């Protein structure tokens, strides 16, 4: 192509009228194209560039004419790259692809380059025509999409898809080299409480801090990923044995157990960690993950904030738990006013000074058609973890009020019934409306019921809890703290709660006659309660000696098998 077509001769100086129409159109297309165009001669020396070239590269016409296009080279491409490019040009007279080049200011950028060979009538090379675009923005967008496809957008950790691909690759290497690998599933204890009480935006900040701490606990060659929610995984490839995994698990426990400062709150989210090992606990991703998950649930049942290695019995326990959870969901979904797998048992509360029954405690029981009579110790924890405790607790309030009305119809007008309230119920906005509605429906007075909250529940999100308890007390409902002494109470906070009863946990009553520490705790609790103007209720009273000891200490109300085990309403 003649050099006169180059941008070294601006189009305004060309006598367009003196050129054939086709040449005029080509000249204008060359000049006005937003795609950079570069033309070289047969020796690959630049003979023409257009304005878009100058704008994109920073080189003007004078700096490029007669130069080899290698002045644009970034030096990133391997020699073989150019060998293949020239082979394609020689064979096909065309080549296109992605290449990194360098601007005049030294900055590099990716571009999509197309090169065509112009030959004369004899087939000899006359010119090379290259046109290209800066693809930085589209490449960045593609990179962002690729990152999003393989990373968790909140923590920027690899997601499940990336984790499974990397674990599969690590397993191949370990199998080939005869090495071991550890997989850890990490679940944050009680993280749901943070979301429920403070909001998901606070929970998200905690998750980001957890991700940073996990990265700091592992080697560069290890993998940490987020599977979803508050569940993370760590992969330790090519380890020498289980002790390596145990040391890392201990390090993670210590790191995650420290408080997280978020929006002025000191928050805690300890880890429960399950560990499976390759090849002994599984030889593929799905099996290792399933077994580590089983071990994690074992860690939770062992008290949380610990790590457990997989054992085959855990799979059986996990399967039983899954079946129990499924049956519980079915039972809760089928609850109706006239038909339910659940029922209430009642245990009397005895006034210590007179031996008179002054109240009852309503206790939830489950008769499953699949599992038979299921202990509350088995199903209450599952109900709390799955959120089923909310509808179950609502049913308990309604059913208790119905049976109080039944009691009154038999002439028992002075018996108050205590109802246990879960942490989820206490945080739920409809608790006040629910209690008012149940009382009104069965024509009861607020003094007919007593609401019990555990010590640990009362100490969660104290401002909100205090507000709700104050409103319940203003309605005339008597409030009690259950399991006192087993939680992490603040006595300074306790005195502000609108409570009337403290219930001494059965664990302190059981050995009160033989354990000096338990006796001292009971004596101090009774004295503290009386000084605060509260009545004391002792749970788990089973012997005459326990009764006499508690009466000498001045305990007000006694409850336990000495008087009666919990019984169905009719009994």
Identify the notable features of this structure and list them briefly.
571 residues; eight-stranded mixed beta barrel; five-stranded antiparallel sheet; 44% helix; disordered N terminus
What is this entry, summarized?
With about 575 residues, this protein is of the alpha/beta class.
Per DSSP E runs of 2 or more residues, the count of β-strands stands at 22
- Helix/strand-derived category reads alpha/beta
Strand arrangement, major sheet: 13-14-16-17-18-19-20-21
Shape, principal axes of CA atoms: elongated
Radius of gyration from CA coordinates: 38 Å
Report the β-strand fraction as a percent range: 15-25%
Question: Can you describe this structure?
Answer:
The chain is α/β, with parallel strands linked by helices and about 575 residues long. It is about 45% helix and about 25% strand. It contains 21 helices and 22 strands. An eight-stranded mixed barrel has the order 13-14-16-17-18-19-20-21, surrounded by four helices. It has a five-stranded antiparallel beta sheet with strand order 2-1-5-4-3, with helices on both faces. A hairpin with a 5-residue loop joins strand 13 and strand 14. Helix 10 (about 285-300) packs across helix 11 (about 310-335) and helix 11 crosses helix 12. The longest helix has 22 residues, at about 310-335. It is elongated and about 120 Å long. Mean pLDDT is about 85; it is low at about 1-15.
């Amino acid at each position: 192509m003649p050099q006169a077509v180059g941008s070294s001769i601006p189009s305004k100086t060309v006598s367009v009228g003196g050129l054939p129409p086709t040449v005029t159109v080509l000249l204008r297309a060359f000049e006005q194209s937003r795609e950079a165009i570069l033309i070289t001669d047969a020796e690959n020396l630049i003979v023409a560039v257009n304005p878009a070239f100058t704008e994109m590269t920073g080189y003007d016409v004078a700096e490029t004419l007669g130069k080899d296009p290698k002045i644009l080279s970034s030096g990133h491409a391997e020699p073989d790259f150019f060998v293949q490019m020239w082979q394609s040009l020689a064979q096909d007279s065309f080549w296109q692809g992605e290449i990194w080049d360098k601007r005049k200011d030294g900055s590099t950028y990716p571009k999509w380059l197309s090169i065509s060979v112009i030959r004369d009538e004899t087939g000899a090379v006359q010119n090379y025509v290259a046109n290209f675009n800066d693809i930085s923005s589209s490449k960045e967008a593609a990179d962002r999409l690729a990152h999003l496809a393989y990373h968790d957008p909140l923590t920027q950790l690899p997601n499940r898809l990336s984790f499974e691909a990397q674990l599969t690759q690590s397993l191949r290497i370990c199998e080939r080299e005869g090495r071991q690998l550890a997989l850890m599933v990490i679940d944050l204890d009680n993280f749901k409480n943070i979301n429920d009480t403070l909001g998901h935006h606070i929970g998200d900040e905690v998750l980001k801090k957890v991700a940073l701490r996990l990265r700091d606990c592992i080697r560069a060659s290890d993998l940490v990923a987020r599977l979803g929610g508050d569940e993370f995984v760590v992969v330790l490839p090519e380890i020498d044995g289980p002790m390596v995994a145990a040391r890392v698990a201990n390090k993670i426990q210590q790191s995650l157990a420290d408080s997280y400062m978020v929006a002025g709150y000191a928050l805690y989210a300890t880890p429960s960690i399950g560990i499976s090992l390759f090849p002994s606990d599984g030889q593929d991703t799905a099996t290792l993950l399933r077994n580590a998950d089983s071990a994690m649930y074992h860690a939770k049942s062992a008290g949380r904030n610990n790590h457990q290695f997989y054992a085959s019995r855990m799979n059986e326990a996990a399967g039983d738990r899954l079946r129990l959870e499924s049956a519980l969901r079915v039972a809760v979904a089928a609850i109706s006013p006239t038909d339910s797998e659940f029922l209430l048992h009642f245990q009397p509360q005895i006034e210590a000074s007179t031996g008179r029954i002054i109240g009852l405690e309503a206790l939830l029981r489950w008769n499953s058609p699949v599992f038979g009579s299921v202990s509350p110790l088995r199903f209450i924890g599952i109900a709390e973890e799955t959120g089923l405790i909310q509808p179950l607790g609502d049913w308990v309030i309604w059913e208790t009020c119905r049976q109080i009305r039944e009691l009154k119809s038999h002439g028992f007008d002075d018996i108050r019934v205590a109802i246990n309230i879960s942490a989820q119920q206490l945080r739920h906005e409809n608790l006040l409306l629910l209690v008012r509605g149940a009382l009104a429906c069965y024509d009861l007075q607020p003094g007919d019921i007593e609401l019990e909250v555990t010590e640990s529940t009362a100490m969660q999100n104290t401002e909100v809890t205090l507000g709700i308890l104050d409103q319940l007390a203003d309605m005339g409902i008597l409030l009690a703290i259950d399991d006192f002494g087993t939680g992490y109470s603040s006595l300074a906070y306790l005195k502000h709660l609108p409570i009337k009863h403290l219930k001494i946990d059965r664990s302190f009553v059981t050995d009160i006659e033989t354990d000096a520490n338990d006796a001292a705790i009971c004596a101090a609790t009774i004295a503290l309660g009386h000084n605060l103007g509260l009545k004391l209720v002792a749970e788990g009273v089973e012997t005459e000696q326990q009764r006499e000891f508690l009466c000498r200490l001045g305990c007000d109300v006694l409850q336990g098998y000495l008087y009666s085990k919990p019984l169905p309403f009719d009994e």
